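User: Hey, quick favor. My workstation is busy. Could you predict this chain's structure for me?
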Amino acid sequence: MNAAGAPPRRVLLGAFGDPGHAFPMIALGRALAARGHDVTLQTWERWREHVEAEGIAFAPAPEYRVFPSGPEPLDFYEAVVHATRDTVPLVRELAPEVVVADILTLAPALAAELEGVRTATLIPHVYPHGEPGFPVYSLGARMPRTAAGRAWWRLAQRPAERGLERGRVELNETRGRLGLPPLGYVHNGISRELAIVGTFPQLEYPRTWPEHVHVVGPLMWEPPAQDVELPPGEDPLVLVAPSTAQDAEHRMLAAALRGLADAPVRVLATWNRRLPARPLPVPANARLVEWVSYSRTMPQCDIVVCHAGHGTLARALSCGCAVVACPAVGDMNENAARLDWAGAGVRLPRRFLTARTLRLAVERTLEDPSIRGRAQEIAAWSAVHDPSARAAELVEELCAEARTA
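Assistant: No problem, here it is.
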C-alpha cells in the first residue's frame, strides 16, 4: 500500500510539449508519484530534466506540430497515425493500468485503446463541449442573460456543429487507419471513461455535467526560476506576463510599458525568453526582465496583465490577482470571456488594444473593489482545494475499475 492507502498503480501520462499542456500533466504526475504510484510521462525532450526531478519516469514523445503554421512534412492526422504507432511499443512495455492523455495529445490514448488499456483525458482549460444556448466556444462571447440571447446562440451553433462533425469524421478516419472502430459523437478525442477538467469551477458556465466529467481546479506546475527584484515603492504592483507562444511582435507588452509609464503603479514586465525584435521603452516605474517565477511573484502583485492563456490566468487568480486579459487567439478569447463573466478581471479585445485602452483597463481594475474581491474569493477556494490530488484520486479510481474489470 502507498502513503495514500491505495495499492501502487502503473500509469502512463502523455502530453505534447507546449507549457500550457505539459505543465498540468507534470503536476498530475507529481501528485501520482507522491502517492506511491509508478508513473511515466511521455512528452517532449525539453522537459526531461524537470520530469525526472519530480520522481516521474520520462519517455520521449514523437514531436510534431499540433498547431501547424505553414507547410509541414505531415498533416496533423497523418502525424497522429505515425505517433500512435510509435507509442504502441511503450504501452506494451509499461503495461499501464490507465493512460491519461492531454486533450490535444491523441497518440497515447489511441495507442492505449489499441492495447485494451483504459484511458482518461486531462483538459487543462475550460470544458470545450458546450450546451444549447451557450456561445460558440473560443469566439470570446459571454454567456447570454436572456431567453432571446440563448435562442440566438442556438442558431449560431449550427455552423460550429458542422465543424465539430467534420472533426468527428476526420478523427474517425484516423481511427480507421489504425484499426479502431468509429465513434458516433463529437469531441470524440475526449475519453468517455474519465475526463478531468483542470480549471476553476468559477470559470465554468452552469450546466448539467456528464458523470464521467470532473472539474477539479487548475493543475499548476512551473520550472524552477530565480526571484527577480521588484520595482521599488509602495504603489500597486502590475505584472505584465505575455504568452510564451503568441504575439510575436510583443504588442501587448509594448502597449503596457507605454500606457502605464506615468501611472501611479509599479510595473514588472517580462518578455518570457522571446527577445523582442526591437528595443522596448522601459519607464522609470517599470522593470523588464527575461523570466519570472509566477508562483513566487504573483502573490506580491495586485494586477496581472496577460494574454489569458489558461495557465497564466489560473495562476493569477489562485494568487488573488485581478486580471486584465488581452486575448491573442483561440481559447484565450474564451478564457477572457469566462474571466469577465466571473467578475474577476477586465477583458480588452485585441482589436481595441492600445497603450491608452490598456491603461484604462488597469485603472478600472484598481478602482472597482468588486473585481479584486472576486479574484480573492477564487484564491480562497484555491487555498482549500488541491486539484492535483483530486485528479490523482480520480485516476486511482479508474485504475481500481480496470483491475476489477
